[in-house]
Amino acid sequence: MKMPGAQRYRSCFLLLALVFRFGTAAEVSIWKVDINSTQDAVFRKTLYANTTIFMKFQGDTGSCDRNLAYNISWYLRSSVCYNEVFNTPDNKAMNMFGMEHMLKDGWSGFYSQGYMYFDNCSSLFLPKVYYADFNPYQPLSSPNSVPSNQSVVWPDKPDISAVAKAWEDSPYLFIVKVLPVFRGIEDEDMEADFAFTMKVEMKGPHDYSSPADWPLMMFFMVMCIVYVLFGALWLFWCACYWRDLLRIQFWIGAVIILGMLEKAVFYSEYQSIRYKGDYIQGAVIFAELFSALKRSLARILVLIVSLGYGIVRPRLGTTVHRLVAVGLLYLIFSSVEGVLRVTGGFYGTVALVANLSLSLIDSCVMWWIFISLSQTTRLLKLRRNVVKLSLYQHFTNTLIFSVVASIIFIIWTTKVFKLVDCQRGWRDLWVDDAFWRLLFSTILLVIMVLLRPSANSQRFSHSPLIDEDDEEEEAKEPMLNEAFEGMKMRGSKPDTNGSQKLLSKEDEDMKWVEENIPTTVADVALPVMLDEEEEILKTKMERSKME
């Protein structure tokens, strides 16, 4: 098999790194907003049908103004376009409050709105309030048409503190406005002084989990089980052949353990959101940092396998410093990117620098992998090491398959999620995060199978006696051929046709006596003793190799 040049794949991996989509933060279902100077709030979430929205208000009744009444209105809007809900800034979303038409022709959705009036803060802070019935939801009309009066009425009554209910699986935009009103006072210049906390909950058929996050939670659960099986299988192989373990096999075991812990941490995060509605920010930051560490070590693993560490090369030498530098750079920038994403600062300048740096590092790593594979495969071909060459050919085929699969997947995601005016395929967004994790798990499985511990593991390890001798013979062989080219080698093969030099009869007799008649007893015993010592030395050497 001909090893493809690294230059062919450089542009592919540059595209792969630049378009690579990092996972987004999970959707929470419980918000607490302080209402004082900020009197408007915008909430975004994908909801299941029949998901109920609750609103509760908390505050100190002793410090509130008894002359203030509160008019709280809300507006719930669904859309088939994921980008309309999640890519609209808050200031533009507030302008959509009460809108009865869609933003563009061809888009569709429904809306519902209502309001609640409280005479004073005491009634606002009651622990249990039966709010008014749901307002019926209506379909959004075309931007240039008259709003439709068609509505669908919910037959059931709301639960305690419930204000709205989702009517279909869709992305939703929920906007709340709080308007304080002075009772019995007509002075328009008076400023309302109020402060309380508004709590919004959205709970559906799968508790607080959303339809966009539910498949990803199931994916992390399955991958956690898969990595547990990976770890059990690798531990079994290592226990059976612990005498023949290679240094590269310890790296593989470390990456398996980190991958298992990473999937478990992310699964616990989604489980926390499902049952509690929110996550602990410190735990999510820890999960992102742990994922960054695992991804950094995973790239180093693929690099050292491509470099032939422990298989073709006994040590990495000065390459270790470059590996450590690349791993640390990737760890730092991926940690910054992950922390900014979960804390809400993903759109700043620092996040842009982190993303571009990660893209550049990933491109360099992929280019380095194929350069190293090309050099390692070429060296094994020169040494005519068929066993190791077959191993690296299978590994190269796996990486080529990953490149092709990545390019196909990037084209599909770009067509479905990015180069569209209306993102209707929001249910498949979880695949954009799961694919890259699944792809690396596949590469890790291939590495496990190719470099698994076995009774013949030492045939893949670097042997200085064999490899260096082969290299020296290959270097000397052309020189010998050139030096003796055109010269006739004499005495190398006996002539069977009588052309050999004749010996005199006396010389032949003396030679027969020296070869067949021993002069002393030592001459008889010495060959046997030498053979025994040679056999003993050979046995000791074989035992030392086995140990």
Number of helices: 14
List unreliable stretches of 5+ residues: 1-22, 147-155, 462-503, 517-534
Global mean pLDDT: 75
Instruction: Report, as a whole number of angstroms, the end-to-end distance.
Output: 36 Å
Looking across the biggest beta sheet, what order are the strands in?
2-8-4-5-6
Briefly note the structural class of the backbone. alpha+beta
Percent in helix:
40-55%
Assembly category:
single chain
Tell the overall outline. elongated
* Number of strand elements: 9
Order of helices and strands: HEEEEHHEHEEEEHHHHHHHHHH
Calculate Rg over CA atoms: 37 Å
Describe the structure.
The protein has 547 residues and is α+β, with helices and mostly antiparallel strands. Helix 7 packs parallel to helix 9. The protein has 14 helices and 9 strands. The N terminus is likely disordered. It has a 5-stranded antiparallel sheet with strand order 2-8-4-5-6. The chain has 2 domains: 269 residues, Rhopdopsin 7-helix transmembrane proteins, CATH 1.20.1070; 174 residues, no CATH class.
Gist of the model:
By secondary structure, this protein is an alpha+beta fold.
What is the topological layout?
Elements: H1 6-19, E1 30-35, E2 40-47, E3 52-58, E4 68-78, H2 82-86, H3 90-95, E5 110-118, H4 121-124, E6 138-139, E7 162-165, E8 170-182, E9 196-203, H5 214-240, H6 247-276, H7 281-307, H8 319-343, H9 349-383, H10 386-418, H11 429-450, H12 464-483, H13 505-516, H14 521-546
Helix pairs in contact: 1-9, 1-10, 5-6, 5-11, 6-7, 7-8, 7-9, 8-9, 9-10, 10-11
